Amino acid sequence: MIVSFSRNSGCFQIWAVLGTVGDPPDTKYNPVSAHTAWLICNFWGDQMKRDSGYSTVAEQRKQEEKVWDTTKITAFVLVMGLLIFTALMNSVSWYVQKIWETSGYFWQAKWLKLYYYFEGREWSIFLFGAALVPSLVFWSFNGILMVADVTGKPTFITRYRIQLGKNDPVDTKKLQQALYTVLCNQFFVSFPMLMPMFYIMKWWGNTFNKELPTFHWFLVELSIFTLTEEILFYYSHRLAHLPLLYKHIHKKHHEWTAPIGVVSIYAHPVEHILSNTLPVMAGPMIMGSHIASITVWFSLALLTTSISHCGYHLPLLPSPEFHDFHHLKFNQCYGVLGLLDYLHGTDTLFRQTKAYKRHRVLLSLTPLSESIPDSPKRANCSCQQASQLYGDSPGEMTPFSSYKMQHCISRILWKDAAHYQLLILQRG
Q1: b/e string for 297-325 if b means 16 or more Cβ within 10 A?
Q2: DSSP code, position 214
Q3: What residues form the membrane-spanning segments (predicted)?
Q4: Closest by CA position to 1, among listed 49, 39, 41, 34
Q5: Spatial distance between the Cα atoms of 359 and 353, rounded to a whole number of angstroms
Q6: DSSP for residue 320
Q7: What is the DSSP letter of 237?
Q8: Cα separations (Å) of 348 from 258, 322, 323, 333, 343?
Q9: Cis peptide leading into 154, omega within 30 of 0?
């Protein structure tokens, strides 16, 4: 028997022949062997059809050609899309450059006018740019938010509250205490720290240049400022959460489990130096930046931290869900950008919550607390209730409230270990 495979027919061709090995293929066929060969050929043909998935080789070739055509079309679309995207980016970049050049003359003229108004007195210019302008930005934004916090109006702001039922309205006595601390931090901590910064910037020699930096260089500086703040703030913040430092320093900031904008710099003076001020000042001091870059950066930093603490997820503004969750849970979301939290795994709990789904820029007028509501709570007892049962001091605790406190803490333990840890630190 001679067996061969035909590429054209797509099956085995089998010759059953008589004679000894070496006889030519045209030897007379044996009928029985031919019938057996026919059965074997059909068997192998069916087997090949099942293995290949195609009824014939022609269909297989047709499918291969179809895949190849699809690949070519996809490659063409991708290449053309890349070319169009590059062309558009070049056009947009060109237009932005033209706009910046046009506006650059405007800002350059304004800067020179300000420079000559102060008669080149560098210390006065530095105080104006690094202290006065950022402070005006901070208090202007937070002034509007405090009106909403105290009065509950206007509703187009309060309807975007993240922690529903909290600070509605805010405790005015607690707010007054926070304002006192914030003003003390600004006047007696932040402003004095500008003095050594001034001499460092003066040593660089570029801060008070009569020519403003280019827009592209400012973007480079802004990227470095942001990364520097993320690194320094994340690690100093995590350090502040060590039990000893938390109890004596960082606990003050976490008195607000549902924060408002102005408490962004409500902190112990040591924390305000190490976590709030130095991470923001370090970038410009490393880069030797122009006072214009410093002014914009300080203003953005204060505005961003105010948004992170404001308690409202407002349309078109950066999402405050990340840091608001930190104030709620205490052991998650330590950073600003969330980059180091992701690398260190300190946002795993946050990523499993509805707050993570809401952590995006709101592009509609519907509050995300309505479109993505929290799941129903399993426990009726919260840390705030436990704190109220506990009283303002250990001496106020009654036997009945002690029993209720133990029961409440037992429920908190299985619901949220982080809250229990905070409660012990607050009362310890």
Answers
A1: bbbbbbbbbbbbbbbbbbeeebbbbbbbb
A2: P
A3: 73-96, 123-148, 178-200, 215-235
A4: 34
A5: 10
A6: -
A7: H
A8: 21, 12, 14, 9, 10
A9: yes
Check: CB of residue 320 under 8 Å from CB of residue 141.
no
Distance (Å, whole) CA 199 – CA 277: 17
Rounded Cα gap, residues 356 and 350, in angstroms: 6
Under 8 Å between Cβ of 312 and 157: yes
3-state secondary structure (DSSP) of residue 311: coil
Long-range pairs of 345-350 with CB within 8 A, sequence gap ≥ 24: 346/238, 347/322, 350/322, 350/325
Token readout for 6 is: 């035909």
Q: Angle, to 10 degrees, between the axis of helix 278-287 and the axis of helix 191-204? A: 10
The span from the first CA to the last CA of the chain, in angstroms, equals 94
Specify whether the CB–CB gap between 302 and 288 falls below 8 A: no
User: Residue 275's closest CA among 229, 216, 322?
Assistant: 229
Quote the DSSP letter at residue 161.
B
Cα(236)–Cα(233) distance, rounded to whole angstroms? Answer: 5
Q: Give the Cα separation of 309 and 334 in Å (integer).
A: 13
Task: Give me the phi and psi of 260, to 5 degrees please.
Answer: -125, 165
Between helices 291-309 and 215-240, what is the axis angle to 10°?
50
Tell me if 45 sits within 8 A of 10, measured CB to CB. yes
* Residue for token pair 């280019």: 214
Lookup: tokens for 208: 């008070």
Lookup result for tokens 């505005």 = 303
Grouped pLDDT means (10 residues each) for the chain, 428 residues: 44 42 43 48 49 60 74 77 72 64 79 92 95 97 94 90 88 94 96 95 89 91 95 96 94 93 95 96 95 96 96 94 92 92 93 93 91 72 43 36 44 46 47
Q: Distance between CA 167 and CA 241 in Å, rounded?
A: 25
CA distances from 156 to 160, 221, 315, 319, 425 (A): 7, 36, 10, 17, 37
pLDDT of residue 62: 72
Give backbone dihedrals phi and psi of 347, rounded to 5 degrees, phi first: -130, 15
Q: State pTM to two decimals.
A: 0.68
Give the C-alpha distances (Å, rounded to integers) separating 382 from 268, 409, 414, 424.
26, 9, 12, 14
- Report yes or no: 282 and 197 within 8 Å, Cβ to Cβ: no
